[in-house]
Amino acid sequence: MAGPKEITPDVRWGLMDAALSVVSPRSAARRYAARVAISNLRRGYEAASKGRGTAGWKAGGTAADAEIAAAGATLRDRMRDLVRNNPIAAQAVQVLVNNIVGTGIRPRAATPDPALNRQVDDLWRRWASRCDDHGHTDFHGVLCLAVREMIEGGEVFAVARYRRGAHARDLRLRIELREADHLDGARFDNRADGTRISQGIETDRDGRRIAYWMFPDHPGHNDPIVNHRLESVRLRAQDVAHLFERQRVQSRGVPWGTPAMRAIRDVDDWQTAELVRKKTEACLVGIVFGADEDQQSIAPVIEDGMGNRVEQFEPGLIAYARGGKDIKFNQPASTAGVYEWHRTQLHIIAAGFRVPYAMMTGDLSQANFSSTRAGLNEFRRMVEQIQWQTVIPMFCEPIWRWFIKEAQSQGLLPDGVEILAEWGPPKFESVNPLQDVQADLLEVRAGFSTLPQQIARRGYDPEEILTEWADFARKADAAGLVFDSDPRKVSKAGLVQTTDPTAPPSGDN
């Protein structure tokens, strides 16, 4: 019968324990028991254990702001370099911008007064078409650039500027975008009244932001003609909208692709090394054995001004060896598993950017309808979270408040009235339009959602759709035309419906 299995203790009996046991066994036992108890407490989390497997794992307990202050500028510079020069990084950023902003996130006034809503919406459309302080684009273009800066540079600032318009009814408000480099991250201060400045962000004694210290000119501008203003200026927080993603309790943001930066760089280096290897192998065609005694290197021989031989490789080159009678051709080696390894690395990069692999690379060879739709559903949930929890409250809503306040101060809108906005993000393109439209129709008919909600989900204004439908219906009636798309006269089954609203329903009506 086998005896009991010997169990090796996790806590070894050390030299100190052995020495102490000779002098005081009781103290040695208490010391060893305490070491075992501490080991049992730490053993709850394997990731927190210390041993040979985690010897190189270094992790600090620093605050998010401390980490960003030390590495934020370097991360921004490297991510911008990748987006400029690496097609995968550029495509990943573009996919995120396309899905978060698309053609724009459109507001519509949401007050109990329909006439006031139309007045506000008309004023917004006129102002949004020329709100860019630099005069390049409209509000949707400004929003698109802001989201791109948030993804690529980690954060962006929108500053309210007030310019005199050409007409008296033109709003003076303009939007100026500033990159993260404008913020004076080296400004720190602790004041006696309890206010403090950390990385250029000034807060009151309760931690609320009251000002930003920014450089009027970009610190990286290298134009020798421009007179740089490198002294930071204080801007009120109520005139600045700071857009960044909060992943911890932090004051500033980091580029989205930070977890994938090392992987992108490694793939770039690997591709360069592989290309150089292939070019080098293609340069040398073969080696001839049996050449002249004075021909000892790759031909033709090139010498510099000092008589030193210059080694070179050229396509189609043949080398000559001394004392041989044969020729051997070079056989370039094949690399197995390159496609699989490269695809695995691209999956890692896509995960770091939080975009689907197929959308980042355009490779649909490993995808089918079900897997593509499941992956897009998760990606869309992430995009909606960013839209409603980051972009709209941190960028769109502050600009809407600036717009309403300025319009009321100029007498273009009634003063003292709270005018809120309902925002409509762009619609997602359907993988199966027929099934999605049928599902939306069933939701409306079952009362799970309303028709205005479904219209807003597609990026349109329900009021505009209703007005346009009414105008078109009147023109169609005047011309005596009936279309299958007119639900007043044609049913879903294609049958003619009565045009008298007082007539009792019958048949398929």
Explain what this protein looks like in three dimensions.
- Pfam families: Phage_portal_2 (PF05136).
- This protein has 509 residues and is an alpha+beta fold.
- It is 42% helix and 13% strand.
- It has 13 helices and 15 strands.
- Strands 4-5-6-7-8 form a five-stranded antiparallel beta sheet, with no helix packed on it. A three-stranded antiparallel beta sheet has the order 3-2-9, with helices on one face. The protein has a three-stranded mixed beta sheet with strand order 13-10-14.
- Helix 4 crosses helix 6 (139-153).
- The longest helix has 41 residues, at 369-409.
Structural class: alpha+beta
User: Roughly what is the average pLDDT, rounded to an integer?
Assistant: 83
Largest sheet: 5 strands, antiparallel
Shape: extended
Spatial arrangement of strands, main beta sheet: 4-5-6-7-8
Strand content: 5-15%
Task: Please give the number of β-strands.
Answer: 15
Q: What is the CA-atom radius of gyration, in angstroms?
A: 34 Å
- Give the fraction of residues assigned to helices: 40-55%
Number of helices: 13
N- and C-termini, Cα separation: 87 Å
Uncertain regions spanning at least 5 consecutive residues: none
